[in-house]
Write a structure and sequence with these properties.
single chain; alpha/beta; six-stranded mixed sheet; 29 helices; 30 strands; about 30% helix
Amino acid sequence: MINLTRRSFLKLGTAAAGVVAATGGVKALADAGELVKGGKDYNNKTGKERKAIPSTCHQCVATCGIIGYVEDGRLVKIEGNPEHPNNRGTICAKGQAGVNQVYDPERILYPMKRVGKRGEGKWKRISWEEAYSEIAGRLKEIRESGRPEEFVFHYGRNRTNGFTDRFCNAYGTPSVFNHTAICEASKQVAQEFMWGKSIDINDVANTKYMLNFGCNVYEAHVLHSSFVQRVVEGRVNNGAKLVTFDVRMSNTAGRSDEWFIIKPGTDGLVALAMANVIMQEGLYDEKFITEWTNVTVDQLKNHLLQYTPEMAERESGVPAKEIVRIAREFATTKPATTISYRGACAHYNGMMNERCIVLLNAVTGNIDGKGGFVLPQSGKAKDEPDPVPEKPKAKSGIKEYWKKKYPEASHGISQTALPLIKEGVQKVGLYMTYWYNPVYSNPQSKLQEEVLKDENLIPFFVAIDAYMGEATALADIILPEASYLERWDPEANNSYSIIPWISIRQPVIKPLGESKSIREIFMELAQRIGGGVEKYFAYGSIEEYIKAAFKKNKGFEEEGGLEMLKKVGVWYDKTKKPAYKSYLKELKPEDLEGTVVDEKGYIFKEKQDGDQKVREVVGIMKNGKALKGFPTSKHKGSPLFEIYSKSLEEHGFPGLPSYIPIPEHRNMKEDQLILTTFKVAVHTQSRTANCKWLTEIYHSNPLWIHPETAKKRGIKTGDEVIVTSGVSSLKTKAHVTEGIHPSVVAFGMGVGHWAYGRVASQAAKFSSKGAGKEVNLNLADPDTELIWWKDKGVHLNELVPVRPDPIGGNQAWMDTVVTVRKA
């Protein structure tokens, strides 16, 4: 029995904003936990037993713990794993719709080879033997020619935790590109400069004030279900205030205590004006600034003087008096934390915006303390079995170009890779994608497609995928990968309990058809390529590799190791307490072996890097104690929280957090608007529109436009409009709403596919009887007859030019200047 008071009932109801906050007192979740440990579940109609198998979700990057329920060998439902310390038994709609991913009627289940022109849609089924033979033969020829860099590997949502790098390193190619720059690169780079870590943990469950810049927490944070639970807990349990700055009335803005509409790209300026108020009024934390940063109080005061609340109001539209009030509230409410994401960082000035926002935490001393802006804690899931291949000696033309033009963009500029191939920056022998759809996901879609279609630029294209996405449809050979519910991966991510954890992704069911995991695919290719590549894949079974990946987690083996993990799904040291203020941790004698202390008290080791000796900072001496300090990275030269960056200054950028105006926004014409994008709760960018349960919920993405703006153009809700940018022009429908800045238009992402199957693209109206003929597949699914909606949405990425943040490399999704007129 569950005893609920009115207050506890309200707490539970409030927490159900997309997820339920499982705080440990609900018996139903405790019972579910027993299922993971070997209990049983039953079909409530037939009484038939279901097997409960724990795993880790991969519908987005949040890596929530899940339980798959299997009946007669078929996955019938997915629920959250209450043993997991991050999501604590909750999952979102995307997680539940993983069933759709497995049983997508148009899923690719066998190796396929094109028989017509690229993009013509003509395929033949081939054997794995034929596929391996052709791909390995080409890869072997490229490698033996002495040009291994001509094998280009480009991945999207990759959670293999280092396995794909192992293959590419063993092969010898440095031409490995991710997708981070179309997502969060500038946020990561900014934080690496300041404290050596790429993504913060906002300890919102224990905070009393949340200052949110452009993050739609309730729908689309990177660790969505885990994070939004804590936001709700902080607000309900602590009475924490949530103040949001956003260009539109998102679900988060609508649930905030206060929402301020802001001009795109001015978040950093508002943050600087607040920091100015805090410093000039003496509301700062002098001890933290003086002892743990690389600037002085006077330096900050003098630098920030230029950023007055009045200046910020002129640029951003946020009233100066509100900036002053909120600055005072934030500085005097302890603890407090900032929140930020794409709304602040996906701009031309995104990296600097993030630095300005993080600065607010530093000047108020809310760094790495309970309820503040906390250093991430995560388990270890990347240790490899010996021997470990060396990094390639060959050079990638694209990466060398990035180093020269974007020297600080440590996560690459993936949206430019295909355009740079077109420009001849790098020659390609074989281009391979892994769960990556640049034709849909990247800006200037037609440009990306043009490169992939050109056989002079991409002579051979291999796609490892399970679905016929817009890019995969252009491949020469498609290798069908097992879904995340049919394969193994070691997993770890940032912990909202501030205690490191590890989890496992294991097969809930057997792979359908002839699909294989990328681990199996690369192991087989390595054997066939030979030449020394194969020796790095002779470690035994995939389970042995997974076991090795977890070997450095102290206490894991003693509590049952991999066998325990297969039963429970997740492990963490239950004797540990949250690791706040980790920079104050005293170093152990073994940490100090071979170290030197310089005149500043920095503790470091000297290492040989090629022809040069480099310093690896490991800590700092404070009051006679050797303390850990803040983590180092290639950007940092000290164990301090680095508000000032010498590296940035040397490359021509401001060394201190500063406002960099967006050039395109300085002299806009009267009829021009700023196009922005947003994510929704039930879709993950390019990868979930094939899930019927999700696309039924969200399939239409009309263009948000303010009533005053619409009236000037004679536009009403439902009207077709033409949106024109400097690179393209598209037609869509209008949604007139007061919930958006008058100078801004916005569209939701994740829909508007022209490939990716019938549910996503609605390529034809069909019945199960006629499906085979109309879509050229021998698959018919009665469920697709239930598609009642007519609107599949519009994909507006074609309007957005390839435009990286010059410091962080992030794609500037939120800056595109457009005109809008009635069609």
